[in-house]
Each structure stands twice: as C-alpha cells, then as structure tokens.
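INTERNAL AUDIT FORM
Audit reference: QA-55
Scope: verify that the stored structure record matches its stored sequence.
Auditor: D.O.
Record contents follow.
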Amino acid sequence: MACWSLRESWIRSAKKRRDRRKPKSGRGTTLRPSSQTPAWNAVVNLVKPHLSQRGDRALLARELGVHRARIGEFFDQQTAMPDAERTLQLLMWLGRQSAPPPPIKSAPE
C-alpha cells in the first residue's frame, strides 16, 4: 500500500515538472515577430533604411537603452520585439529621423 501511494506521488510530481516545461499559449504570453504581427513588420520596414550607416545601430541602441545586439534581434533576425515603452521611443526616434532638418537661422544684421 505504501509503495502504491509513493508511486502516485511520484507520478504527480513528474506531471507537474512536465507541465512547467510546456510553453504557455494564449493570454499574457509574449508576442514574437511573425506574419501575425503586421504592425511590427511595417515598423521594421520603416526603420531598416535608417540603420545603413556605421554607428546608426549603436546610436539607436543608446537611445532605446538596450544593448546594440538587441537592435539586430529586432530588425535583422526578427526574433524579438521591444516592449511597449521602447516601441514608443522607437516611433518618436523614427519621426525625428524622417522629419526635415530645421532651417538654419542667419545672424541678424
């Protein structure tokens, strides 16, 4: 009898361990870039042309407060997406990049 209850408790604990390893799906899970994220894909297409010169990625990483390797994950490998706050910062950065430079005022004579 004791052996039976020990076996049952072992099976329950094994099921709990197995359930912990299962990937969660549904509400509260992290979204990954894919065809299911068309808005993020559009942002990637808008940002990529601004990252062509040397140092652009490092400057953007500094602006967003992330490691510059994350910029590659966001825009090259597309294996990650920034959180909401960084996405808003990215959109503001993109607006500044796309806006024409302010006119230079000449000194008054």
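Auditor finding: record pair retrieved intact. Residues 2-21 form the longest helix (20 residues).
Action required: none
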